[in-house]
Amino acid sequence: MKRRDFVTSALGAAAISSVPYTRASANDLSAKTLSGGETVLSNAEIKEFGDSLRGKLLRPTSDGYDRARKVWNGVWNDQRPALVARCSGIKDVLNAVEFARTHDLLVALRGGGHSISGKSICEGGMVIDMSLMDSVHVDPFEKTARVEPGVLLGALDRASQHFGLATTAGVVSHTGAAGLTLGGGIGRLQRKHGLTIDNLLSADVITPDGQFLRASEADNADLFWGLRGGGGNFGIVTSFEYQLHHVGPKVLNVSFMYPISEAKDVLNFYFDFNMNAPDDLYIGAGLAMPPGESGFAMISGCYFGDFAEGERLIEPLRKFGKPLFSNVGPIDYVDLQSRNDRNNQHGHFYYAKSGFFTDIETAVIDNAVDRFEGTSSRRTLLLISPFGGAVGRVAEDATAFTHRDTQYQIEISSGWEDDSLSDDNVQWCRRYWDALEPFTSGGFYVNFIVDQQQQQRLNENYRGNYDRLVALKNKYDPTNFLRLNANIEPTV
C-alpha cells in the first residue's frame, strides 16, 4: 500500500506523519512532540516514569511492545510509538498525562483500539493505553452500569444482561465503550432509548492540566455537555456511568436476504416500510458483497416488545418478494449484539465513509445500487441504520451531538486482507461516496471521520453547537494536548 497517500488525507495526518523517530543513544529515545518535532527522552527519565506506574511502560525493545501497538484497523499497524504506557488505574493515567505534558509529547489515547482512522495509535509519540482498565459494575437496583475506558461493548452487554438490562451500545461487540460514547453512540436500542450519550449519567475525567473531575448534569455541566458527542477533545474519561433499561434476554430477530438484482425494489420497500415503524422496531437495510461473490440485499433488525406484536408488525416483510433466506424468531440479545463481529475482524484493512440523511430521494437508491460493486478480494458493504424515535426527541442543543433530525445513517465500507490492494479499495470507496454525499444533510458521525476534508467540515457538522465546543476546548485544552481525535482546535 502507498501508505503516504492514505495518511495524507486521513485525520490528523500532520500529527502522525510517517517520519520515523530514531534513538538518540543506546538507552535514550527520540520522541515526537505536539508540534511534529522531536525531543530526546533520557533513559533516567523513562525509568522514573515507568517506576511510577502500576502497569507497564513499553519501549520498542520491550517484550509485548509489538502486540500492544496493534489496533483493530490493520491500515495503522505499521505505526511505532516511542512509548506505550499500559495504565492499570487512574493514578497511572494521571502520571502519564503529567509525563507527556512535561515533555510536550504527541499523545494517542487507547481504549478499545477500534478507531477506524487510527486515532488510538501514533508514530513516535506516546500511547496512553487504558485497555487494561476494563472493569464493569452493574447496579441492578438503580439500573446503572459504571465502566472503565478499556471496556468493550460485549463485556458491558454481558454484565448488564445478567440482570436483564442493557443500554444503547453499538453493533460490534469488540468496539470500545469509550470511543463509541464520546462520539455519540449508535446502536440497536437507539430508537427506543436514544443514543449512548442520551443514557450517560456521569463521567470521571482527567483534564490535560491534570485535574480529576466529575462531569454530570450537576457537576461541571459544561464539560458533561461537551463529552456527549464532542469526542475526546476535552479530557480523558476514566469512568462512564450509564442508565440501563429492561431488555431481553431474548428479542425478536428479523432477517431477510434477497438477490442483488432486486436491490432497488428491496430498498424502496424498506424505506416505505420503516416510515411508520414504532420505537420498539429497529430495522435496517443494506447491500453486501463478500469477496468473489455476487452479493445480496438485506433487511434485518429486531423487535424489543411482545413477540406476537412484533410478528404482526413485520407481516408486510414476510409478504414482500422472494427472499433467498429469512429468519424470524427469538435470539439472545447478547448473541444479536455480536452478530457483526465476523465481518469486522482485528488486523484486516478497513476504510469507511458515512453521512446522515433527513430524507431519502430516489437518486440515493439509484446511485447506491448502480455503483455498488465488489472484487475477488474485497468485502463491500452499504449499511442503512434507522434513526428517529427517541433520538429525535432530544433538543439539538441538549448535547454536543446535534443531528436530532436525522432519519437514517448510510455507511459504506471496504474490508480486505492484502495490503497491496489498499489504494484501489480506498479510492473505490471514496468515489462511491462522492455519488451519495450530495444527498446527505451535510452531517456525519464523528466516529467515522477518516479524511482531512471531513475534519475541515467540523464547524458545519456541529451546526450551532460548534462555537460552544470551541469555548470548551479553550477552557479545558487550550494547548490542544488532545488532538488525535475529531479535533476541535482551540482559538486561544
Q: What can you see in these coordinates?
A:
- The protein is an alpha+beta fold and 492 residues long.
- The protein folds into three domains: 3-129, 2-Layer Sandwich (Uridine Diphospho-n-acetylenolpyruvylglucosamine Reductase, domain 2), CATH 3.30.43.10; 136-247, Uridine Diphospho-n-acetylenolpyruvylglucosamine Reductase, domain 3 (2-Layer Sandwich), CATH 3.30.465.10; 250-448, Vanillyl-alcohol Oxidase, Chain A, domain 3 (3-Layer(aba) Sandwich).
- The chain is 27% helix and 24% strand.
- The chain contains 17 helices and 20 strands.
- The protein has helices at 3-9, 43-51, 65-68, 90-102, 153-161, 177-183, 190-193, 221-227, 263-274, 307-313, 315-319, 333-337, 362-370, 422-436, 452-455, 458-461, 466-476, and strands spanning 29-32, 38-41, 56-58, 83-86, 107-110, 126-129, 136-139, 144-147, 165-166, 200-206, 212-216, 236-243, 245-246, 250-259, 281-289, 296-303, 325-332, 349-357, 378-386, 408-416.
- The strands form five sheets. Strands 17-14-16-15-19-20-18 form a seven-stranded antiparallel β-sheet. Strands 7-8-12-10-11 form a five-stranded antiparallel β-sheet.
- A hairpin with a 5-residue loop joins strand 1 (29-32) and strand 2.
- The two termini are 39 Å apart.
